[in-house]
Amino acid sequence: MKTYTQQHLITVSETAAAMGSGSLEVFATPAMIALMENTAIQTIDDLETGFTTVGIEINVQHLRASKPGETVTCTAELVKHEGKLYEFQIVVENTKGDKTGTATHKRVAVRIEKFMNSL
User: Fold this and answer.
1) What does the pLDDT average to over 58-74?
2) Which terminus of the chain has fewer CB atoms gathered within 10 Å of its CB, N or C?
3) Whole-angstrom Cα distance, residue 60 to residue 46?
């Protein structure tokens, strides 16, 4: 199935200390998850006008710390697409090729207007 890869330069604002998810100046897990979701979204190219996807599940392993100024590479592979459901395998690696994070992720397609009106 389709894959998408992007590089990301970690900033100080994405550290655990800055985001409040910890006290260290390292890439925060919430920031890594946002990168993972954004990368997964880039693989989806079959949505009809008026639709988007929303994340419904993510199972993440944050395996290795990274610091501001480092570049990581995130690759998402769309491994299953049935109806409205999209499923992904995601890997984040540092410049040495070490896995810094992995995830499985699910998204579903929703009609934007209907979804927003239901809130």
Assistant:
1) 98
2) C
3) 26
